[in-house]
Amino acid sequence: MPEVSEQPEGDPPHRRGRPQKPICETVGAAHRTWLEPVRDRFAASGLTLDDLVARSGYSKTRLSELLRGEGYYPGWEITYSVVRVLEIPIGPLLRLWKAAAVEADKNTAWIKSRIRDVRTDVVEEQPIAHLGLTQAMWQPYTAYAQAFLQSEPRARQAARETFDILWLTWDRATTSPDTPRHAWQLLRSTVLSRAPKRPGGHPDLRAAAFCTTAQAQTGDLVERVARIDIHARFFDAIARLPTDQMDITVLRYLCGIDPDAVPGVVGLSPAITHTLDHHARGALNELFPDTDTQE
Fold it and tell me: How far, in Å, CA of 85 to CA of 78, rounded?
């Protein structure tokens, strides 16, 4: 374990040395996804940059650049050296590092060669509770992501990224007041950060109009076009709902999640979920009184 200075039990580690400089504004979304947990772990460790230099074998300049996301995208060797010192789970971090490398326009050959440069036989055990959450929430998380991203591969990537971040920050997740709620809010943030936006800033759900049951069953071209227009406006109204109401509506009526399962997915009580669902349907029925929510 990294050494920390002695302190009263329950207090955060005393931070020696200068505070970390902020992440560079040019850092991509995928890069930031793994860099922020690494920075948080470094801050919580009580180590200084000089300590990190001594334990990783890399210069202060290079480590400072890595922690800020400055310059070229970092290779896996230097990233792994920091991960090892801070005792961060390697498997999920490596997956996030690879996704960010793609975002940084690194080709497959570059990624594979950088990983081959690091020889490690570390065997990690996924926390049992994290594994259980992943198995239970994979399907609803992926369905929710696909409603916004309109791509199964992108939806699966968003879900995988969410569970990897949860693993990296599992201590924080399990000390939150409600772990399922914490996980859901992370999933939602991950998905909406990638979803196309309307001019008003809310997510664009209109593409889902092409995927409704009623649309698929309509044979007449004129009627199909009319239905698409109605449903596009209807789904745009869903995306304008307050966030929790939007989530519940998407899960129930776009993803087909069983109503009894929705509270567990979003991490809210059945009573609160029912109330939010009631308010959402009321608002939508006022705007579109002739539209069946079940479509």
Answer: 11
Give the C-alpha separation, 245 to 279, whole Å: 8
* Cα gap 148→196, rounded to integer Å: 8
Average pLDDT of the residues in 116-125: 79
Q: Report yes or no: 147 and 141 within 8 Å, Cβ to Cβ.
A: no
pLDDT tens, position by position, 40-64: 999 999 999 999 999 999 999 999 9
Residue (of 168, 172, 173) closest to 86 by Cα position: 168
d(CA 200, CA 213): 28
Tokens representing 58 are: 């890399």
| pLDDT tens digits, one per residue of 155-193 | 999 999 999 999 999 988 898 889 999 999 999 999 999
Cα 154 vs. chain centroid, distance in angstroms?
12
**What pTM value is reported for the model?**
0.82
Percentage of the chain surpassing pLDDT 70? 84
Pair of tokens at residue 73: 């995208």
Q: Report yes or no: 49 and 5 within 8 Å, Cβ to Cβ.
A: no
CA distance 284 to 70: 46
Name which of 49, 45, 63 is nearest 19 in CA terms.
49
Residue 186 CA, chain-centre distance (Å), reads 5
266-273 mean pLDDT? 97
Measure the CA–CA gap between 181 and 22, rounded to whole angstroms.
28
- Cα-Cα-Cα-Cα torsion 261, 265, 267, 273, nearest 10 degrees, comes to -50
Query: What sign results for the dihedral spanned by CA atoms 91, 95, 193, 22?
Result: positive
- CA separation for the pair 153, 19 (Å, rounded): 39
